[in-house]
Design brief:
Layout lengths: L3 H19 L5 E5 L6 E7 L9 H14 L9 E4 L3 H13 L3 E6 L4 H9 L3 E5 L5 H10 L3 E2 L2 H8 L8 H8 L10 E5 L4 H12 L5 E7 L3 H8 L31 E5 L1 H15 L5 H19 L4 E7 L13 H6 L5 H5 L7
Length: 350
C-alpha cells in the first residue's frame, strides 16, 4: 500500500544526504609555537561549514534522527532551544525541507545570531531567563511542533562509529602528520554531543588519545565532572555563548572525559582575539576557550617531558560577536578587560 507520508520522509532524507555529499570536509590547520617545540597544535575549522559552525553537523543529524524516528512529518513546525549557532544551522536545514522553524533563545544572545536565524526564515522566541529555554521549547512541542531537542538527543543522534563524524574526520586528516595519533583532543561542551562523539570514537578505534573538555570557569560540566553529580548547577555565569551551561545537560557523558580545564572569560576572549591575529579572521569565544585549554594542556605535557600533537576546534564565525566580544564598549560595560590575558599568550607565529 502506498504511504504518501513515507514518500515525503524518503525525499527529505535524500535531500539531507545530497547536502552532506556536496559539503567538502573542513580544514585542519597546523600551528607551531616556538614556546612548545615538541608539541604541534591543530585546529579544525568548523566555521567553514555553510552555516558557519560545527553545529552544522549536529543540525543535520538531529533532522535525520527526527525523520527516521517518525517524529517529523511534512509541513510540521520545528522548534529547538539554542543560544544561536545550532539555531542558525537548524533554520538552514528547515528552510531546505520547507518547514517552519522557531528558535527559543536567551534574550542576551548576540544580536547577529538572532538576525542570522531570521534571515534564514526562522522565528526567534526570546526568553529573559536562560534557564527557561527548555520549558519554552517544550511548550511549543506540546502545541504540535517537532522538538529537535539538541540537549537531550545530540549524543545519540550523531553516529559516533563513523560516517564522517568529527572524530573520524580529524583522525583521517591527521594520518600523514608526524604524530598522527593525537596526545589530546580538546573541545568545549554545550550539549555534550561533540565530546560524546569524540570520546566514544577514540575508544571504538582503540586509541590512547585523551579527551579534554574546555569549560568556562564555574560551568556546570566542570563541577559535575569532578563530582560525578549530574544535578549540580553552574556557580558562575559566562559571556561565552554555546558553552558554560547553567546545568549538566543529559548528553554530557562523564566517563569518557579525561580532563576538564576551566578558562576565565577574559582568557577566552583574549584567545579569540589571538586567533584573529594568527588567521586574519574572527572566531567566537568558545574557540578562544579551546585555545586557552590547549595551552594549559601543552604546558603540562612540557613539564612532564612529553611530546606529541594536540587537536582542537574552531567552533564558529567571529562576525557573530562583532557587537559583543569584539566590541570594546560592550566589554567595558561588563567589566571585562582581556588585554592582560592577551599579553600572556605566545607571540603570534609569522
Amino acid at each position: 500500500m502506498k504511504r504518501p507520508e513515507r514518500d515525503w520522509v524518503r525525499e527529505a532524507v535524500e535531500r539531507l544526504r545530497r547536502e552532506a555529499t556536496r559539503s567538502a570536509d573542513t580544514h585542519l590547520l597546523r600551528l607551531d609555537l616556538p614556546a612548545f617545540p615538541d608539541i604541534a597544535f591543530y585546529f579544525k575549522d568548523e566555521a567553514a561549514h555553510p552555516t558557519g559552525s560545527l553545529k552544522h553537523r549536529l543540525a543535520r543529524s538531529l533532522f535525520l534522527y527526527a525523520l527516521c524516528n517518525g517524529r517529523l512529518r511534512e509541513g510540521q513546525a520545528v522548534v529547538d532551544a539554542s543560544s544561536g549557532s545550532t539555531a542558525i544551522s537548524e533554520a538552514w536545514f528547515a528552510r531546505m525541507l520547507g518547514l517552519p522553524f522557531t528558535a527559543v533563545m536567551p534574550a542576551c544572545t548576540a544580536p547577529r545570531k538572532i538576525a542570522d536565524v531570521q534571515a534564514l526564515g526562522g522565528t526567534c522566541d526570546l526568553v529573559d531567563d536562560p534557564n527557561d529555554v527548555h520549558a519554552r521549547a517544550a511548550w511549543h512541542a506540546a502545541n504540535g511542533a517537532c522538538h529537535l531537542d539538541q540537549f537531550a538527543l545530540a549524543e545519540r543522534a550523531t553516529d559516533w562509529r563513523g560516517n564522517n563524524n568529527i572524530a573520524e574526520s580529524i583522525l583521517r586528516q591527521m594520518a600523514l602528520e608526524p604524530d598522527p595519533e593525537p596526545a589530546w583532543i580538546v573541545c568545549g561542551a554545550g550539549t555534550g554531543g561533540t565530546s560524546a562523539t569524540i570520546g566514544r570514537y577514540l575508544r571504538y578505534q582503540g586509541l590512547s588519545t585523551r579527551l579534554c573538555v574546555a569549560e568556562p570557569t564555574g560551568g556546570a560540566f566542570a563541577e559535575g565532572w569532578r563530582t560525578r553529580n549530574p544535578s549540580v548547577r553552574a556557580s558562575r555565569g559566562t559571556v561565552i555563548e554555546g558553552i558554560g551551561r547553567p546545568r549538566v545537560e543529559p548528553g554530557f557523558l562523564f566517563d569518557i572525559v579525561d580532563a576538564v580545564v576551566e578558562v576565565d572569560d577574559v582568557e577566552s576572549i583574549a584567545g579569540a582575539w589571538w586567533l584573529e591575529g594568527w588567521l586574519g579572521r574572527r572566531y567566537g569565544g568558545s574557540s578562544g576557550t579551546n585555545l586557552a585549554a590547549c595551552l594549559h594542556i601543552a604546558a603540562d605535557m612540557q613539564a612532564r617531558g612529553e611530546r606529541g600533537s594536540i587537536v582542537s576546534l574552531l567552533c564558529d564565525r567571529g562576525e557573530r560577536y562583532a557587537q559583543t566580544l569584539f566590541d570594546p564598549k560592550w566589554l567595558q560595560a561588563r567589566g571585562l578587560d582581556p588585554k592582560a590575558a592577551h599579553a600572556l599568550l605566545p607571540p603570534i607565529p609569522c
